[in-house]
Amino acid sequence: MSANPFFRVDNRLVHGQIIATWLPHLRLQRFLIASDTVPSNTLQTTMFRMAIPSEVGFEALSIDAAARALADPALQQSRVMVLIESVADAVRLFAGFSFGQLNLGNVHHAADRERITDAVYLGPSDLQALGQLAARGVRVDVRSLPSEAPLDLTPRLGR
Fold this sequence. Notes:
Blueprint: E1 6-10, H1 16-26, E2 30-34, H2 42-51, E3 57-61, H3 63-70, H4 73-77, E4 80-84, H5 87-96, E5 101-106, E6 114-115, E7 121-122, H6 124-135, E8 139-142, E9 151-152
Parallel strand pairs: 1-4, 1-5, 2-3, 2-4, 5-8
Antiparallel strand pairs: 6-7, 8-9
Helix pairs in contact: 3-5, 5-6
């Protein structure tokens, strides 16, 4: 797989699909959740830690703290998946730590969102935000499972 870390928007964060398919595919050493709500939710972080094999590291940090942690060269060289709950949070993370690729794995359906794939629905504000990332050199793809061919969303974003 390409660059480390691997950045993924998935509103479910840690779940079976991540553990069963992405973990072995990327040979992950660590998960990092970038969220302003998850780190203070003890129940949620405990459940995530229980789902992740004990030999794989796990941290849940605020978006600002995650950006600072990602600046550590040792972390940049490890096989880490950065999980982000929303496109808006990905843009906020990018403001603190630039990355070159963003995977959209799951974004729930909502009234103002259009279907991109069965798992990804984007609204006007999401498309505008992703367009800003694409204009800054971020390749945006949609792929739920590593066995799927990635759908390069970047051309649709006006880049």
